[in-house]
Amino acid sequence: MLYGAHSQAGMLDDILDWFSGGDETQETSKADPESETSIMTSAVKSATAAAKSATVNAGLGFMPKVVRALGVTEKQSKGGLGAIFMAASTTLAPEDYKLISDTVPNIDSYIAAAPPTNQLVGGAMNLLGGSAKATAAANLVTQFNDLGLGADTIAGFSQQAIDFVKEQSPEASSKLMGVVSEYL
Questions:
Q1: pLDDT tens digits, 5-32
Q2: Alpha carbon distance 71, 33 (integer Å)
Q3: Which residues contact 141 (CB under 8 A, 6 or more apart)?
Q4: Residue 26 to residue 141: CA distance in whole angstroms
Q5: pLDDT tens-digit profile of 86-100?
Q6: pTM over 0.90, yes/no
Q7: Are residues 85 and 172 in contact, defined by beta-carbon separation less than 8 angstroms?
Q8: Distance between CA 136 and CA 184 in Å, rounded?
Q9: Quick one: CA dihedral 168, 171, 172, 175, positive or negative?
Q10: Which residues of the chain have pLDDT under 70?
Q11: Which domains are present in the chain?
Q12: Distance separating alpha carbons of residues 167 and 78, to the nearest angstrom
């Protein structure tokens, strides 16, 4: 009977060694720094992708929300937001604008939907010694008029854009607020 118990204990040890990798495997399975780095890199990439996915998903509801909130058409919504983002791109330092563009999925499609700026307005503002911000403000009024919207709607669009950007990055929203503050 003692032999049978010892034999079963030996067999149990063999089974446990097999599942755990055994003594031989344990000696060779010390942590490989390269594989740990690879695992960390993979985890960071996954977290970054998840954050981007959350931003994209938030962006999908952005334009319909503006349409509902302001009672405008989809074309007016996209064009008005694009005009605001265009004003930000022309008045902010590149690194400040990047904060905004990183928070708005497909920001270039919004800018492309904005009516073109009026070169005469920009030229006149430059001749009068106007700043880039003053030129952008004058262009915003012209662009909103081209969309069939009055200058009085710029405030609503500005607030919608600021609120959306703020959900993603409070720092970026403060940069955008600096661009459109005179309309709020």
A1: 444 555 556 555 555 555 544 444 455 5
A2: 57
A3: 151, 154
A4: 71
A5: 999 999 999 999 999
A6: no
A7: no
A8: 15
A9: positive
A10: 1-60, 119-130
A11: 56-183 (1.10.490)
A12: 19
